[in-house]
Amino acid sequence: MNDLAIIFNILRRVIYEDEKSSDMINSYAAKASNLSLITKTVYGVLENKIYIDYMIRKLSDVRLKKIHKHVLLILEIGIYNIHFLETKDYATVDKLVDLTKEKNKRSTGFVNAILRSFIRDEKEIAKIYETDDIKSLSIRYSFPEEITKYIYDFYGMDYTKAYLRDAGRIRDLAIRVNTLKISREDLKKLLIKAGFEIEDGKISPNSLLVKNPAGLASCEAFKDGLFTIQQEASMKVVEVLNPKENSKILDLCAAPGTKTTYLAEFTKNTGKIIANDISKAKNKLILENIQRLALENISLTNYDASTFVSAFENEFDFCLVDAPCSGLGVVGRKPEIRYNRNKETIVRLADLQKDILVNAIKYVKKGGYLVYSTCTLGPLENRNNFKFLMDNKDLELIQIDGQDFIEYKSFEANTDGFFISKFRKIND
Ligand SMILES: C[S@@+](CC[C@H](N)C(=O)[O-])C[C@H]1O[C@@H](n2cnc3c(N)ncnc32)[C@H](O)[C@@H]1O
């Protein structure tokens, strides 16, 4: 299978079968001859799909909805190559026409004609003629109009533009040092010796930033459990909860266990941690992480956290609700997320978060702490649920670094967009 066919297969599975881009790229890595170009093209098409489709609409007599999905995908890969990678040679077109012969033979002439006329007329076709600001931003940055408007309505134009402009930027990859096994300084030296370019993290004292991360997850230090790949904002969630040694901790939405394992490292393997997630399949990932990092005292459960579990009532000193959310703070790493989100899904997620929080409050002992976090932005999730917690008479707000909550902006903080808030339970 050549690289173009690999790109086609990955995108088909991400766009039409709901697979994750990173998982798909990993699963084809062994077959690839130029993995970095495959990665760039897959992310590039996903990050620019709405804009690319806008251009295809201008070029095609056939309505977009009527174009066979495999043919549309080939056109999207073609336009991305020509416009963004500037491979304006007809050899690229010929390769895509060959791919069309395999996938949908009768459309070869159509694909050939569209791509050639794009090369001829690229400048004009690429212009966006939209007077409505939201529509124009939605096309230019390939964000669904409804989500663009949702962000704009709450944060205003400057924020929206900065957020959209930045969404595809590659951030430094952060790692969390497993301080039970090695110090930050020693891990830094070891990774530099292995050829990685390393800087200290800016938010967490246990974090390092890796400037050239290719091969990181297959290096010996990773296999030996000396570190975990985790963005600094995500680490901050655990640091805000600040669980004490020998305490009882509940991580209600735990998979794949990035924060659970930090909770265990943070409490030096002394706490009693319950890591819960609704997904049995994902619990396997938590287990793999626990084993790789040689952690102890973590039990796994599989409850739906929106349903009350009486065995948990008033049991925990610390409870983390790292809630299922719309993920708008992590679109840089998961570009496909934006196409699965609309207002309705956001409302549904916000309601689910609230149901989970109602139970979480009951699970915390008097004097215990609750952290509510998400990797998203927007008022329906973060702010409305924060207000719901503020209004609860059994809770008092604990400020974080002098603020009521933290909302990391992905375009400012060189980390994922995250919302973090903390409360103490003051009544039974
Ligand atoms: C943001 S992720 C958690 C990430 C995790 N805390 C970490 O740092 O690795 C949200 C998780 O919530 C889980 N989830 C979704 N609905 C749930 C529910 N009703 N009850 C429990 N877990 C749920 C998902 O399976 C997903 O793993």
TrEMBL record:
GO biological process: regulation of DNA-templated transcription
GO MF: RNA binding; rRNA methyltransferase activity
Entries under Gene3D superfamilies matching the protein: NusB-like (1.10.940.10), Sun protein, domain 3 (3.30.70.1170), Vaccinia Virus protein VP39 (3.40.50.150)
Major localization listed first in the record, in broad terms: cytoplasm
Localization (cell): Cytoplasm
Keyword flag S-adenosyl-L-methionine: yes
Residues annotated as domain SAM-dependent MTase RsmB/NOP-type: 163-426
EC number(s) recorded for this UniProt protein: 2.1.1.176
Catalytic activity of the protein: cytidine(967) in 16S rRNA + S-adenosyl-L-methionine = 5-methylcytidine(967) in 16S rRNA + S-adenosyl-L-homocysteine + H(+)
InterPro entries: MeTrfase_RsmB-F_NOP2_cat, MeTrfase_RsmB-F_NOP2_dom, NusB-like_sf, NusB_RsmB_TIM44, RCMT, rRNA_ssu_MeTfrase_B, RsmB-like_ferredoxin, SAM-dependent_MTases_sf
Lineage top rank: taxon: Bacteria
Keyword set includes Acetylation: no
Binding site for S-adenosyl-L-methionine: D277, D304, D322
Broadest EC class assigned to this enzyme: transferase
Gene Ontology CC, one term: cytoplasm
Keyword vocabulary terms for this entry: Cytoplasm, Methyltransferase, RNA-binding, rRNA processing, S-adenosyl-L-methionine, Transferase
SUPFAM superfamilies: NusB-like, S-adenosyl-L-methionine-dependent methyltransferases
Record-annotated active site: C375
UniProt record similarity statement: Belongs to the class I-like SAM-binding methyltransferase superfamily. RsmB/NOP family.
Primary role: Specifically methylates the cytosine at position 967 (m5C967) of 16S rRNA.
Protein name per Swiss-Prot or TrEMBL: 16S rRNA (cytosine(967)-C(5))-methyltransferase
Protein species of origin: Anaerococcus lactolyticus ATCC 51172
Gene name in the database record: sun
